[in-house]
Write a structure and sequence with these properties.
This protein is an all-beta fold and 497 residues long. Helix content is 0%, strand content 55%. The strands form 9 sheets. Strands 6, 7, 8, 9 and 10 form a 5-stranded antiparallel beta sheet that branches. Strand 25 and strand 26 form a beta hairpin.
């Protein structure tokens, strides 16, 4: 058990990065915190066998305590995806949901606290449904609410809410979109029994000057426990995409993650669109107060989605997702190998506090580093559940843990970018060091960027396409100087005297 009465009285634990395949292949799709343990859900496959449901329990140091798997009794393929539903039930068990791929359908499974399976409910698709994406399972006083997105008979996507009793019987099911258009949902947040907020998206016209490309309107609405719509807000044309995770703020406003798209009318490619992940804050009337782009550039790719957003113990916000790094990259080419899992911390006023992006390095190339969710411990430490693939070997479930400052180890804390690659000493020189004002970067080429960071990895200053930086205005102390030169990065401690 954690014995922390106040968040700031707890001490962050040592970080780690660990991966698991359970002598086969595994994915981690979501995570929850249960007292002093974490529970992860996912999928497991051994050899050429069928994919099974996976659930595992670990301590907060990443040591495996127990795990269990379940194979569909109809010998079908059962799977899940990033941030698929995982909740703790009122009786101390765990409930998850996912897909049945072969014959088509959804499943909801429940395990007790010892990871023994208690039920497995299989819901085959009716004739008018071809695809489904489980979004959220919410436990109510009289059953469960199952939020999903389904492709209906005319091949359009729609938003569904399904009410189940505690025996798995369907009591009712409602859809909320326009039957003639594609409406998507990606998240749901229960405020109370009479306000369950869904984050979604609707079509929204065309990009100005690019009629061949459709854009979208953000759609946020609430239903009650009977499925009745309580209110809704629909944004302007081209104002965003699907709401992937949403939180209600202390001022009764809304903070959510989304992916916004931009039409290119200049180089590198004219007449194309690309997207970037954003964090958006709106007031109680849905007026935009601020937004923060979570990547340095727009990318034309299926990546850049932040599935999990939570308020932290110190009243800031944490978000996890995936982006392509190192930036800048060509936004119109495939970069599977460069897909990184990124964890952000931002203030409630939209200031970026820190960012760290991680991959796993093995003997072979690793790729598709995709997060499913995260938990924050009472100490402020954060554990992320994700997955990745080692080329020609296996898929792995992956956990990594950092402290409240985003540091995996206190003496090695670089939270503003991915990994540090040191250039050979004869390629670059930093001088003078120590210095009281100007510091020079001596290299064959002018650096792309010079960045000054404090020892927690926070960016203090940066200059582009210059060979010197003035640090006269910063207090006496030790700093980190990061130099970008092409695809390489050089890092050195400097002393301001």
């Amino acid at each position: 058990m954690f014995f922390c009465n106040m968040w700031l009285q707890c001490h962050s634990q040592a970080g780690f990065s660990k991966h698991f395949n359970f002598e086969g292949e595994a994915y981690f799709n979501n995570i929850l915190l249960d007292e002093d343990m974490i529970v992860v859900s996912g999928a497991y496959q051994q050899g050429m066998g069928l994919a099974n449901i996976l659930i595992a329990k670990l301590d907060t140091s990443g040591h495996l305590i127990a795990f269990n798997t379940f194979e569909d009794p109809g010998n079908d393929l059962v799977m899940g995806s990033a941030n698929y539903p995982l909740i703790k039930s009122s009786d101390g068990g765990y409930i998850m949901a996912g897909n049945i791929l072969g014959n088509g359908g959804d499943y909801i499974a429940k395990w007790d606290s010892q990871l023994n399976l208690q039920f497995y409910w299989n819901y085959p698709f009716p004739a008018n449904i071809s695809v489904s994406f489980p979004i959220k399972v919410i436990e109510l006083t009289d059953g469960f609410l199952f939020i999903s997105m389904k492709q209906v008979g005319n091949l359009t996507m729609d938003v569904f809410a399904t009410k189940l009793d505690f025996n798995g019987n369907i009591l009712w099911e409602y859809s909320y979109g326009d039957p003639e258009e594609d409406d998507y949902v990606s998240t749901a947040l229960m405020i109370n029994d009479n306000e369950i907020v869904l984050g979604a998206v609707k079509p929204g016209g065309n990009f100005p000057g690019l009629p061949q490309y459709d854009c979208a309107r953000t759609w946020i609405f609430a239903i009650d426990s009977t499925g009745t719509k309580q209110w809704e807000w629909i944004g302007e044309d081209c104002d965003g995409s699907t709401v992937h995770s949403i939180q209600k703020t202390a001022d009764n406003g809304w903070l959510y993650t989304t992916k916004q798209f931009e039409a290119f009318t200049t180089a590198p490619v004219v007449g194309e669109t690309a997207g970037a992940p954003f964090l958006v804050k709106r007031d109680a009337d849905f007026n935009k107060e601020w937004e923060l782009r979570l990547s340095d550039q727009y990318i034309q790719s299926p990546y850049g989605y932040f599935f999990d957003l939570k308020k932290s113990g110190d009243d800031q916000y944490l978000a996890v997702g995936d982006i392509l790094l190192p930036e800048p990259v060509n936004p119109f080419t495939s970069h599977n190998v460069q897909r990184f899992t990124c964890l952000y911390k931002v203030s409630d006023t939209g200031d970026s506090l820190w960012r760290r992006c991680d991959t796993v390095k093995l003997n072979n190339i690793t790729w598709d580093h995709r997060p499913g969710g995260f938990v924050e411990l009472p100490s402020g430490s954060i554990i992320v559940a994700a997955r990745f693939i080692e080329q020609d070997v296996a898929a792995y479930g992956w956990l990594y843990k950092v402290d409240k400052n985003g540091c995996m180890h206190p003496d090695d804390c670089i939270t503003t970018d991915v990994e540090v690659v040191h250039i050979e000493s004869n390629a670059i020189k930093i001088s003078p060091n120590p210095t009281s004002d100007l510091i020079y970067v001596n290299s064959d080429e002018v650096p792309d960027e010079i960045i000054l960071l404090d020892m927690s990895g926070h960016v203090l200053s940066s200059v582009m396409h210059r060979s010197e930086m003035n640090i006269r205005d910063f207090p006496v102390g030790v700093y980190l100087l990061k130099v970008r030169l092409g695809e390489e990065v050089y890092l050195e401690k400097i002393l301001r005297n």
